[in-house]
Amino acid sequence: MLAAGGAGSEWVIARGRCAYTVLDGSSVPAAKRRAFVNMAVNRWAPFSDPQAHVQWVGDSAMVWAWSQHDASAVLEEGENEPPRRITPESLFVGSALADDAVLVAMDEGFEGRVWRRNLLIASVWWPESPTLAQWNAFLRGAGRRSVDALPALEPSSVADAPWHLLQGASIQDMWGRHRVLALQIGAALVLAALCYPLAGIARLAMAQAAVERKIESQDASLQAILSARDQAERDAQAAQSLLALRPPQNQIALFDHAIAAIPGNGWTIVEWRMPNRDALEVLLNMPRPDPRALVIAWEASGYFAEVTAELGRGADEVIVRARIVRERDASVGAGP
Question: Which CATH architecture has domain 251-333?
């Protein structure tokens, strides 16, 4: 029968109205265990309309099943609101054991229990205290040896909370309950362990990128300096090329030096020509021209070298050709 607890409360269903079994879920993924239990209960339960309470211990599920019709009938008799949860009486009487076989007096009848590693591997209910033969048959069905006497009855007081909440869970039980969470935490730890060196690599890559950017900046500055230097060298070469086109002496000074180097009077410069920057060619018109005297006079000036003179087409014409001496060389070579 159900113990009344009021609307929205948790109700307890008598052990005599329940069937019990253990399901092996070791090969079932955690995400599919609920569906696995529902299907297994519908196949196993001796009711056409089973409702069940499931308690996992590791990979094993302890299952108490009852008829929904029986529970509804009690509700109709009492005219009560449906409870939020129905829990088997077995969970409030006695306690979970590591490895033992016990006989427990329930509110109605007696329950035999066989424990192995905190898992209730077998449970049976008798309306009256079992005989020794019934008890030994139950033990042998659970894989235990027969005994010579019935065990002492366990206290039948009803606890305020189910024993599966009061007992310390084994490692296997905790693994069964929290496998998904444990796997998630483990995956997070593995990911964190992998991310830590990756973060170091990322920091190193960022530092390397910063160094490379600085090097590129330095290279850009150096390249700008080198480009400026190359441009300056090109400009200097261009200036030298332009300066190379300048005659060794100033045109006005050169004209003065040439006039001063022409001996005698009554002469006239008919043509003044520079075939190149270092050469001078002058056509003179003078009475009785003396080429030898012109050569001596021009070379003696210190401003001309390699001087030649030859008579022109006319009787009074003479052509003087000379290499222009640079002003510094002329100053050194000229006498006082």
Answer: 2-Layer Sandwich (3.30)
In the chain, what is the straight-line distance between the N-terminal and C-terminal CA atoms, in Å? 150
Structure tokens at 291: 């080429």
The Cα 74–Cα 67 span in angstroms is 11
Q: Which pTM does this prediction carry?
A: 0.49
Choose among 9, 12, 145: nearest CA to 74.
12
Instruction: Taking each helix axis as running N to C, give the angle between helix 251-261 and helix 291-300, from 0 to 180 degrees, rounded to the nearest 10.
Output: 130
Cα–Cα distance between 161 and 183 in angstroms, integer?
30
Check whether 4 has a pLDDT greater than 50. no
From the number of C-beta atoms within 10 Å of its C-beta (0-12, 13-18, 19+), residue 259 rates as: exposed
3-state secondary structure of 234: helix
Cα–Cα distance measured from residue 137 to residue 145, given in angstroms and rounded to the nearest whole number: 9
Q: Which residue has the tokens 């006498």?
A: 335
CA distance linking residue 103 with residue 135, whole number of Å: 9
